[in-house]
Amino acid sequence: MSDEAETEIELQTLPLDAWHRARGGRMVPFAGYHMPVQYEGIMAEHLWVRDSAGLFDVSHMGQLLLSGDNLDDELEKLIPADVKGVALGQQKYSLLLAENGGILDDLMFSRWPSGIYMVVNGAVKYEDIAHLREHLPDEITINHLDDRALLALQGPKAFDVLKRHTTGDYPLDVLVFMKGGRFEIAGVDAYISRSGYTGEDGFEISIPADAAEKVADLLCGEPEVKPIGLGARDSLRLEADLPLYGHDLDPETTPMMAALGFAVASKRRREEANYPGAERILLEREQGPVVKRVGLLVEGRQPVREGAAVLDADGSEVGKVTSGGFAPTLGAPIAMAYVPAAMAEVGTRIQLNQRGKVHEATVAAMPFVPHRYVRGSK
Amino acid sequence: MRYFTEDHEWVDVDGDIGTVGITDYAQGQLGDIVFVDVPEEGKTVTKGDEAAVVESVKAASDVYSPVSGTVIEGNADLADNPGLVNEDADGEGWFFKLTLSDPDELKDLMDEAKYEAFVAKL
After folding, report:
1. Which of A1, A37, A239, A244 to mutate to test the interface with B (most CBs of B within 10 A)?
2. Which CATH architecture has domain A290-369?
3. Cβ-based contacts of B24 with chain A (< 8 Å)
4. DSSP 8-state assignment for residue A308
5. With contacts defined as CB-CB under 8 Å, which chain B residues touch A46?
6. Chain A interface, best mutation among B5, B20, B34, by max A CB count within 10 A
7. B14 CA to chain A: closest CA distance, Å?
8. In terms of CATH, what superfamily is A1-289?
9. Do A303 and B34 touch (CB under 8 A)?
10. Nearest 5°: CA angle at A66, between A61 and A70?
């Protein structure tokens, strides 16, 4: 059997490194860190999150706090979101854009009393910080909160579990999807938002790194909660139509190509058209992009993975699979791919070539598994 | 008599017929197996060549033939139930049977005790 070797370049350790190992986590290199890919097994962990609740350590991600005068105006020069419209405790998804409209990273940001709290991808966080530093005026302070851990509690029972352990000025119930606030968990000061990367209801919990073990032990001490590795995180997000930076998104990809139109939908920002790549992005919004990210249901049982070619009717390569694998919830292989606009309609039959073997697939509506976010009533 | 490779395949030899599978250690490393592609009857395989593919949730891996020969049967049960490899890698989860073309090749392989010592050091 073949082994897949990954180049090891001075890997960093997570605050919970020893905790993962003690719980049987199988550690692999990811985004510059030793990270647990699985504990008891990807399939079981995946299904556990869909049925109950799982705890993910995502402390490799970059947590930033931006502050200073005119922060909203300055940040709007780099991302297409309506930053000014984000009130205290609100969270929004956005994209760090290059001049050509390509995606440098995808991110979440929220309004804190002290500024804008931002969570960026671990694999590109240092590039992101450099980009922000270069393009934001000196008056804006960028604080890399690298003394904080980030845990995600995800699944239909996440709320019940977390409610048992949180206290604060208001009950956890006030948080609906994409809202956040300050709470205490076991005496630990925490910023909690109702969000995540699995398609399930759930929370992301930012806490001081030195309290991470205490909080992780507390949550995993509940019968509903198990620790979940990167493997299941990947299959969960794939089922939920959540693209992964560096795979489904990159600097050659625009928001419209990536089917992230909601991230460039703000009416005011469209009229102002003053963020990087706005001209191209808004044109694509009107006319449609030339290629588009779609979901694929793959026939048979064999997974078709990143790198497989999308073929047209003549057998020529016209696109690429950017993520693919076996979907535990569906019991079938699924994938994300970039295809020409003419092939992007749901129901279109598509052929894929992986290592010389042709697989049949159909463009499917995404998400593959319905989201179960808890949204507020308007 | 069962022989093992450093790539974690086993071949169980009875006369000039060999049955090939992957070891329990290998299935544990791979995790949940969701697909196995076994060679068809009549296919000629060479020692060390890719003879089968095994896919877990996370990754695809090649399975190399421990010996050279001609395939006489692929394990048809694995098509519908690839999880057999996780459940019983040493038995029901076998991959294929072949007629050995050069039984001398077995001399290069490990016996069970040597393989266990090899795995213990990993």
Report:
1. A1
2. Beta Barrel (2.40)
3. none
4. P
5. 57
6. B34
7. 23
8. Probable tRNA modification gtpase trme; domain 1 (3.30.1360.120)
9. yes
10. 150
Find where tokens 């804008």 sit: A116
Q: CB–CB of B35 and A37 under 8 A?
A: no
Question: ipTM of the predicted structure?
Answer: 0.87
- Nearest CA to A334 among A312, A306, A314? A306
Following CA atoms A312, A314, A315, A317 in sequence, which dihedral angle do they give, to the nearest 10 degrees? -50
Residue among A2, A231, A302 whose CB faces B61 most closely: A2
Taking CA atoms, A212 is separated from A19, A58, A68, A142, A271, in Å, by 10, 11, 29, 23, 44
Neighbouring-strand partners of residue A139: none
Please check whether residue A328 touches B, CB under 8 A: yes
Q: Strands A62-67, A291-298: parallel, antiparallel or unpaired by DSSP?
A: unpaired
For each of chain A's 378 residues, which pLDDT tens digit applies?
655 455 546 899 999 999 999 999 999 999 999 999 999 999 999 999 999 999 999 999 999 999 999 999 999 999 999 999 999 999 999 999 999 999 999 999 999 999 999 999 999 999 999 999 999 999 999 999 999 999 999 999 999 999 999 999 999 999 999 999 999 999 999 999 999 999 999 999 999 999 999 999 999 999 999 999 999 999 999 999 999 999 999 999 999 999 999 999 999 999 999 999 999 999 999 999 999 999 999 999 999 999 999 999 899 999 999 999 999 999 999 999 999 999 999 999 999 999 999 999 999 999 999 999 999 764
Domain B2-105 has CATH 2.40.50.100: yes
- Contact between B57 and A328 using a beta-carbon 8 Å cutoff: yes
Domain segments of chain A as ranges: 1-289, 290-369
**A42–B58 C-beta distance less than 8 A:** yes
Could A302 and B37 be called an inter-chain contact, meaning their C-beta atoms sit closer than 8 Å?
A: yes
CB within 8 Å of A7: residues ≥ 6 apart: A29
Q: Is A324 an 8 Å CB contact of chain B?
A: no
Of B22, B32, B35, the CB nearest to A1: B22
